[in-house]
Amino acid sequence: MRQVVLEIADIKVFRNKRQTLKIENLSISAGEIVAIIGPNGAGKSTLLQLINMHLSYKTGKMVLFGEDVAGADKQSLRRRSSMVFQETMLLDDTVFNNVALALRFRGLPEREIKEKVTKALADFHCAHLTTRMAGNLSGGEAQRVCLARALVYEPELLLLDEPFAALDSPTRNTLLAELRLVAIARGTTVMLVSHNFNDVLYFAERAVVLQEGCIVQDDTPEVILRRPVNAIIASLIEMDNVLPCQVEKQGDDILVQLANGVYFPWTGQKWQGATVCCLPGDALYIFDEQLVYQYNSLMAMEGIVSQVVPGIGMYRIMVETQGLSLTMRVPREQVTSRVAIGMQLKIAFNPGDVQLV
Ligand SMILES: Nc1ncnc2c1ncn2[C@@H]1O[C@H](COP(=O)(O)OP(=O)(O)O)[C@@H](O)[C@H]1O
Ligand SMILES: [Mg+2]
């Protein structure tokens, strides 16, 4: 079994007398790569500051690297983790000296410092920046140096608070890929706060969703992508179709009715109080007879194609169905051969792919 790096139980954090965090239970194991997502103000940064022991808590318990934080020597615990922010906060000095700083604090011999700094800079492909002044670096270069600085003393836990939010998307992707490789190679546990769900899908194997200070979902990014717990999280992850609906019990059946009049039987769990039907765009199909054999329950409807948005692999098609606009994601070859703006299109979905919230 993997060692537990972090365990939080029943912790409440107050800021300006307002409760900003209420974590009933969170456990992170060694080597996990976890994303923290949630709307603005949900408490993501607060959670990282709590873990970094920059905030006190009123009730509950936090165990970090096997030690109860309440009675621990925080300075020595803090040396086992490292934090990176969006603001790079590099000193007005050379790249080498910036990265070497934490090792000098620890009193390592200069020969060992040189070895470790050289390796950390090489890990993030910035060996060529060693003698440059930190103030003259580009945004991407500065963030690479920050990662090298954060990892040079081999922390067990790396806390990242939207470190790449200000970078362009190719730079961000490259940095995420490099960081992932380094973290896996070193066995470093990573907690990444990000508001970009594509980054999360790419980077993390687990995502913890915060809303109003509470964990509302904790699962693989793929499950969160298809089965968000509520409409706010659905729009946060850019769910294609977040459709108002009515759910009614009729005799022994439960029926879900959409705003365009289409209704379908519900056989899943958790329908009481549901007002929204989430449907990923790739769960809507252009109807053909083959589909009927593929799925035993299929809901079909007619609509007019209002927009076709090209993409790599998948195209997005917007279809108007009786006042309800639906977004489909359809393989490119199907679109180019069968779809044009203004045409009537029969489409279908499998109710099993619907998430009611
Ligand atoms: N330094 C602070 N002092 C008081 N309240 C704060 C402070 N920082 C954040 N907050 C409040 O705590 C809540 C959570 O903020 P934060 O953790 O920064 O959210 P997120 O990172 O998810 O956007 C918000 O309501 C915010 O206004
Ligand atoms: Mg934040």
TrEMBL record:
The gene is btuD_6. Residues 6-237 form the ABC transporter domain. Pfam families: ABC_tran. InterPro entries: AAA+_ATPase, ABC_SmlMolc_Importer, ABC_transporter-like_ATP-bd, ABC_transporter-like_CS, ABC_transpr_CbiO/EcfA_su, P-loop_NTPase. Keywords: ATP-binding, Nucleotide-binding, Transport. One of its GO terms (molecular function) is ATP binding. It comes from Sporomusa silvacetica DSM 10669. It is found in: Cell membrane. It comes from the Bacteria. This is Vitamin B12 import ATP-binding protein BtuD. It is a peripheral membrane protein.
